[in-house]
Design a protein that fits this description.
By secondary structure, the protein is α/β, with parallel strands linked by helices. The chain is 40% helix and 23% strand. A hairpin with a 2-residue loop joins strand 5 (90-99) and strand 6.
């Protein structure tokens, strides 16, 4: 399979499924696209009933073959990340990995237009993240929940309102920001720097006011990010954690026990926002909606970071009590979108952090409507 044939194949899949989020090439399966969170076979008229090892190996060579670093990572680590551009149509973030001696490829479609907070219908309090002068703001969640999209919308606010220097360190570059008031330098892992830690260390000498780090992958990156926040930079990044409380614990858990006290103090001083998100299927069965947990910082939160959570001083309770300031738990957010009819009761309970809280909230809504409750 040549690059021209691969371009044609991806173009055909996009023609058939313009709303797809991912394309999946797995040996023994047909061509597949993920639409609204579910895989389905596509382009069956092309006669590829099942992909062979030869198919995926040729795709791998066309995608990664020109870059020695990608081939080296694939052979030594079992997977590699890269970007793929279909001229005039779409951009993709690609992961190639080996499984049982064969290659599999997953291509995540990247939006070409930078979204705004209004486009995405995100909580208005996220505007406050863009107004921060320094510190760390984290957007967390599982893979594919839209963390990068939320960060792009926050950067868009900065771009339109502030004449500042912004450096992004990404793997790969997902949203290309057209400069309005801000000046953007967007760097790609492997192409422009060799690790997030080294890229972030170099960024501190490049006079940015805002630094986006694609992911906090290791202790070294977290340590440099804390130093950047302490020296007057605003650092935006992501973590794979399920809620605000676990975000704090994950960062502290990256360090040795004897360093814990110092890291707790530094994190309490530097953290500004911990935003977690999940994607829930909509009630009508078409599309998904984002649910958020948003925690800012105040004296009680900083005290809990330094001394640890205790009875009556849990992050969940602090978020609930700060609801008037725009903070919200997943459970309260889920109850709100259930009340609006966006999701079903089953979905609300399935994605809840505390099912009893959501169940109680749903019963109150049903009682107010005069419906039967549990």
């Amino acid at each position: 399979m040549t690059r021209k044939e691969l371009d044609f194949l991806v173009g055909r899949i996009l023609d058939e499924n313009p709303e797809l989020s991912d394309i999946n090439f797995t040996v023994g399966k047909p061509l597949q696209a993920e639409v609204d969170g579910f895989l389905k076979p596509v382009c069956e008229d092309l006669g590829i009933a099942r992909l062979t090892p030869f198919h995926t190996e040729m795709m791998m060579l066309n995608l990664a073959g020109k870059d020695r670093r990608n081939i080296h990572h694939l052979l030594t680590q079992g997977s590699c990340d890269l970007s793929y551009h279909l001229p005039g149509r779409a951009r993709f973030r690609v992961n190639i990995f080996s499984q049982r001696g064969n290659y599999s490829i997953v291509m995540r479609q990247l939006p070409t237009k930078v979204p705004t907070l209004q486009d995405l219908n995100l909580p208005a309090v996220l505007n406050e993240v863009a107004q921060e002068k320094n510190g760390i703001a984290l957007v967390t969640g599982a893979t594919g929940t839209g963390k990068s999209t939320t960060l792009a919308a926050i950067l868009d606010v900065i771009n339109r309102e502030k004449p500042v220097h912004v450096i992004t360190l990404e793997d790969p570059v997902e949203f290309v920001h057209e400069p309005f008031r801000a000046t953007f330098n967007q760097r790609e892992l492997g192409l422009d720097y060799d690790s997030f830690a080294s890229g972030l260390r170099a960024a501190l000498r490049q006079a940015p006011k805002v630094v986006l780090v694609g992911e906090m992958r290791d202790r070294e990156t977290v340590e440099i990010a804390l130093s950047a926040a302490e020296t007057g930079h605003l650092v935006l990044s992501t973590l794979h954690t399920v809620d605000a409380g676990q975000t704090i614990h994950r960062i502290i858990g990256m360090f040795e026990l004897e360093e814990e006290r110092l890291i707790r103090i530094r994190l309490a001083d530097s953290l500004r926002w911990a935003i977690s998100q999940r994607l829930l299927p909509k009630a009508e069965g078409t599309g998904r909606v984002a649910a958020f947990e948003i925690m800012g910082t105040n004296l009680r939160v900083r005290e809990a970071i330094v001394n640890g959570e205790s009875e009556g001083k849990r992050f969940y309770e602090m978020i609930q009590q700060a609801r008037p300031f725009g903070w919200v738990t997943f459970d309260d957010y889920i109850i709100d979108i259930y009340q609006q009819g966006v999701i079903t009761e089953q979905t609300a309970l399935a994605y809840a952090s505390k099912r009893a809280v959501v169940k109680r909230g749903i019963d109150q809504i049903k009682a107010a409507r005069g419906e039967k409750t549990t």
